[in-house]
Specification:
The protein has 176 residues and is α/β, with parallel strands linked by helices. The protein has one domain: Rossmann fold. 30% of the residues lie in helices and 31% in strands. It contains five helices and ten strands, in the order βββββαβααβαβαββ. The model has no long low-confidence stretch (mean pLDDT 88).
């Protein structure tokens, strides 16, 4: 999947993205870290640009969003309807079950997952056999990400505020 450089306007979110470089997310074994200050549209970029592109390319993905606590309730319900006993299962085991039964996915998106699990290297251990591309929104420093995503090629995508024009935030998105 590739997101071509250009201007991407999200009027409903008051965001205007200026993508400086083509974002080639086809790198097998690649780990793309989306970095930038809060409010720079990283989650909106995921939801309105990346995920629709994945769907267009018929790529199966797993997405763990910022509000992970709500998603755990959904995962419990989903796995319960599939016959798994999950009422007493802790969050890590719940995630492990979900990954084990979602191996048709080729892309994993983690949006600020490190807020809940600072050392999330277990995610790579569970998914390396089937995930080809990782997309991770983080506020962790580069050295910390390299330690967590060991054995993966790391690509940084930086979100920077250009200016605010009226209510519209103009954000530059570039490869580092």
């Amino acid at each position: 999947m590739e997101i071509h450089k250009g201007i991407y306007r999200l009027d409903d979110r008051n965001l205007n993205f200026d993508i400086v470089d083509d974002l080639n997310l086809n790198n097998s074994g690649g780990c793309f870290y989306f970095r930038g200050d809060n409010g720079f549209g990283k989650t909106s970029f995921l939801e309105k640009i990346i995920i629709p592109a994945l769907r267009t390319d018929n790529l199966s993905y797993l997405y763990i969003g910022q509000d992970i606590r709500t998603q755990f309730y959904t995962l419990r319900a989903l796995l319960s309807t599939r016959g798994f006993k999950v009422s007493d299962t802790d969050e890590v085991e719940l995630l492990r079950l979900w990954f084990r039964h979602s191996q048709s996915a080729s892309v994993l998106i983690l949006d600020e997952f490190d807020k809940y699990f600072p050392d999330y290297s277990f995610i790579f251990d569970w998914s390396d056999a089937f995930i080809q591309t990782y997309i991770i929104v983080t506020h962790l420093g580069m050295n910390r990400c390299e330690a967590v995503a060991k054995n993966h090629r790391i690509c940084n995508v930086r979100f920077e505020l250009i200016n605010i024009d009226g209510h519209m935030k103009n954000i530059r998105v570039r490869n580092e």
